[in-house]
Amino acid sequence: MGRDRIIVALDVDSVEEAVALVGKLRESVCAFKIGLELVNAGGVGIFQAVREAGAKRIFYDCKFHDIPNTIAGASRAAARLGVWMFNVHCSGGSAMMRAAAEAAAESSKSSECEPPLVIGVTVLTSIDQATFNDELCTEGGIAEHVVHLAKLAKNAGLDGVVASPHEISVIRQACGEDFLIVTPGVRPAGWDVGDQKRVTTPAEAVRLGADYLVIGRPITRSSDPAKAAADIAAEIDSV
Question: 20 to 30 A from 227, CA-CA: which of 1, 26, 97, 209?
Answer without folding.
Answer: 209
